[in-house]
Amino acid sequence: MAWLKRNANRLWLVMILLAVGGVLALIDQRGELLSPGPLPDSSEGEPDYYLEQVVYTRFDQQGRPYQTLESPRVTHISDSDVSLADTPVIGLIDENERHWRITGDHGRVGPGGDRITLSGNARAVQPDDLWRLETDTLEYDRDSARVWSDSESRFFQGEQRTRGDRFQAWINEDRMLLEGNVSGTLLPDR
Amino acid sequence: LESDAQQPIHISADQLTIDDQAGTAVYTGTVHVEQGSLKLDAQRVELQRGASGGLSTMRATGTSGQRAYIEQQPSPQESLVRGWGDTLIYHAGERRVEMLGNAELHRGGDTFTGAYVEYFLDSRQVNARGGQQSQGGEAGGRVNMTLTPEGGSN
C-alpha cells in the first residue's frame, strides 16, 4: 500500500498516457473503421473505388479548364468509366469563358465527363445572363454543348419566370428553348 | 385601365426561345398575353426588354388566315377598344399600339380601317393611314372611318 501511495502520481501519468495513446490510435484508424458506405444500387456495375470530399478539374488539350466537380462522395465504376456523385456541384466553362453551375441530388458522369446526368432537384445557373433553370432531371452533353431537360422546367431570368414541359440551352450560343404549355410572367419596365 | 401599365404581364404559348446575343424572347404557337385589362392573341410574339429587364415592346404577328388581335378597357365606364392587324406593335412605355397591314380598330361606336392604324391608350387618340401608291397608280388602300355621332347607335 505504501508503494502505491508513493507512486500515485506516476501511476496517474501512465494511465493518462495510455488513454491518449488509445484515442490517437482510434483516430488514425478512422479510415478502416468507417464502413465503406452504401453500394450504389444502380446497374452500372461493380464499383472500383470511392472517393470522399472530391474536388477535381478537367483540362482540354490546350490546358484550359473546362469542367470542375465537387462532391462529398464519388463512386467510380471502371468497367464503364462512369462516376456516380452525391450532391454534385459541377462547373462548366463555355467558349465565351462564362461559368455555368449545374447541381442535383445525384450525378452520373459518363466517360471523359462528356455526358452528365443530374437527377433530383436539378439546377442550372448561368450568372452572366441571370439565367436559372429548375427541373427534376437535367442532361449535359459536351460535344453538342447542350444542357436539356425532358421533365417540367422552370426558367428564371431576372424578373421573368416561365415554365415549360421541356427545356434546352446551347451554352456556347446564349440561346435557350422552352417547349410545351409555356406560361410565365414578366414585370413591366420601370 | 389606368392601372394596366403597372400590372405584371402573363404570357402563355407553345414555345419560348430566348437568344441573349440577339436580345430577343420569342413566343410562338397560340400566344396569349394579358396585362391587366389588355389582352393580345397572336401566332408569334417577340418581346424586347427595357433597361430594367422588363417589357419594352411587344411585336405580335398573326398567321395568313388570322390577324393578331388586341383589346383593352380604357376605363370602367368605357367599352372595350379592339384592334386587329397582320402585325401589332405594343410600346409599353408610350402606351401606344401600332396596327400594320389589314389594320382595324373599333373604339366605342367608331371603326377605323386602313393599311396602318395607330392608337394611344391613354389619350384614346387614333391616327390612320392608307397604303402606298401601288404600281398601277391607284391608291394602295384607303383609310375608312365610321364615326358614330354622340348618342347615336351603331
TrEMBL record, chain A:
UniProt cross-references to Gene3D superfamilies, sorted A to Z: Lipopolysaccharide (LPS) transport protein A like domain
Example of a GO MF term: lipopolysaccharide transmembrane transporter activity
Keywords for the protein's UniProt record, in alphabetical order: Cell inner membrane, Cell membrane, Membrane, Transmembrane, Transmembrane helix
GO cellular component: outer membrane-bounded periplasmic space; plasma membrane
Xref: InterPro entries: LipoPS_assembly_LptC-rel, LPS_export_LptC, LptC
Regions annotated as coiled coil: none
Keyword check for Cell inner membrane: yes
PANTHER family, sorted: LIPOPOLYSACCHARIDE EXPORT SYSTEM PROTEIN LPTC
Protein name as it appears in the record: LPS export ABC transporter periplasmic protein LptC
